[in-house]
Amino acid sequence: MWSRRQGRLSTLACGVEELRCRRREREAALRKARREQQLVSKRLLREDAPEEAGGQSAAVLLGEAEVQQFLRLAQRGTDEKEREKALVSLRRGLQHPETQQTFIRLEGSMRTLVGLLTSNRALLQLEAARCLHELSHSEQSAVAEACLPATSYLLTYLSGHSSEFIELCLYTLGNLIVESEAVRKQLLPQGIVPALVACIQSPHVAVLEALGYALSQLLQSKEAPEKIIPENLGFGYFLAVFERSHWYLCGSCSQPTSAGSSLLDSSLLQHMLRLMQPGPKLNLGVAVEFAWCLHYIICSQVNNAMLLSHGALPTLAMLLLDMAGAAQRMDDAGLELQLACPVFRCLSNLLTEVPVEAMGEQMELRDERIVAALFILLQFFLQKQPTLLSEGLWLLNNLTANSPTLCTSLLSLDLIEPLLQLLPLSNVISVLVLTVLCNIVEKGPAYCQRLWPGPLLSCLLNTLVLSDIEVVGQSLELLQLLFLYQPEAAQAFLQQSGLQALERHQEETQLRDRILALQQTAIHG
């Protein structure tokens, strides 16, 4: 009797470990894909221009002669008002893609516009910057590259005094950064990174939001993990100098030789996390932009251990709790819908960096309030934004993968039935829900006993009638774990025609071995 039990336990351990390894390999590929998902976009501040408040903002197609005329009037008009009006007309024309192409083909056009940008007339400077902003929003990389002569001046003006002008320059630079590698190659030596970092202490919310946007555009570039985050010089140095003497950055200056060796070594991260702290001073727009910045830094995997040591997890966990509270109060639906996605992704990816043995040290990872808050948000998204459900369930998967404590929380808070209710929504949702349930069941017999009896088996039988191979495969793995730990479930499966449900998938090559293994487990134990 004793010998038989030992043998069964040995076989059980092997089976569970094999299932775990197989699932973890598949999740690694999914996690890599989720890491690399990006939010590439461009921003347009056109609605901020007072001239367009009257509804005269339709793009106007300008010919070559008209572009030349407006440039000439802007440069040599009889008075400043006429010059400004010519630039306004040019800017409206530059909203049209064909006018943009005409402009960059004209010899000397960009030189004239840069000359107006650097004039000593504030209104002309602002309108010239707005023209550049229209060009930066183009979908054609050639248009963005034509703006390169203006970039050093845009960087220089980031140290100016007009928050409106700084905001415009930041969004223009952000649009240019994302367009092409050639643009970034020129902007990096010009000092784009230290110039951006120097803006993070601005008291103006609009400037901080624009900074977060521009920085996120830079951080999501393909060369960021190798050339921007770990190797960029000057973060700590430039920030320290800026704080000490209000030193104004010059776009043409070179980077210093004595500087911090990493973006993460500077105080930029602390400032970012400070701007994401929940509380009455939290600004949604700023928090969203810097949450995306943090997401791209985490995805680079340059030094996520440093992010953990600087308290990124507690900040993100508190944001999650704050979002759940707002969702319950329904006082700001926009907060959940905009901030949730980057926060979920940051938490999900950071959790993969926490060693299993260190899980207990991260108090925020074993607080059942995290699970409760996540389910509040899942219910909210079910009504408001179903596309975010998969993000929340991926986070739940990563939370429960290595945490028996949080698996216990799901059981003690009676959250299994709400989880099962999500199964019919889509195949993607089904796979994620089943994966979370696998995380619970693989923790051992005690966890399975708390799931049995209950609606789990009937739900799994329903998934077996589906045709999606991934959903069925995940159901098979969950059933295998459940039968190994809870023999009563195997008996109930047989009594409810489970073997017949399996037969419909026996022709699927990818499922055949797992179906055979499950049949043997169900029949022979």
Can you give a write-up of this model?
α2 (64-76) packs antiparallel against α3 and α8 (148-156) runs parallel beside α10 (181-190). The protein starts with a helix and ends with a helix. Among the domains are: 44-136; 154-310, Alpha Horseshoe (Leucine-rich Repeat Variant); 446-525. 70% of the residues lie in helices and 0% in strands. The protein contains 30 helices and no strands. By secondary structure, it is an all-alpha fold. Residues 1-14, 48-56 and 232-262 have low confidence and may be disordered.
CATH architecture heading of one domain: Alpha Horseshoe
CATH H level, superfamily name of one domain? Leucine-rich Repeat Variant
| Strand elements, count | 0
Write down the secondary-structure element order. Answer: HHHHHHHHHHHHHHHHHHHHHHHHHHHHHH
Mean pLDDT: 81
CATH C-level label of one domain:
Mainly Alpha
Q: What does the secondary structure layout of this molecule look like, with pairings?
A:
Layout: H1 2-36, H2 64-76, H3 80-93, H4 97-105, H5 109-117, H6 122-136, H7 141-146, H8 148-156, H9 163-179, H10 181-190, H11 192-198, H12 205-219, H13 224-228, H14 235-245, H15 268-275, H16 284-300, H17 304-309, H18 312-329, H19 333-351, H20 368-384, H21 389-401, H22 404-412, H23 416-420, H24 427-441, H25 445-451, H26 456-463, H27 469-485, H28 487-495, H29 498-503, H30 509-524
Helix pairs in contact: 1-27, 2-3, 2-5, 3-6, 5-6, 6-9, 8-10, 9-10, 9-12, 11-14, 12-16, 15-16, 16-19, 18-19, 18-20, 19-21, 20-21, 21-24, 24-27, 27-28, 27-30
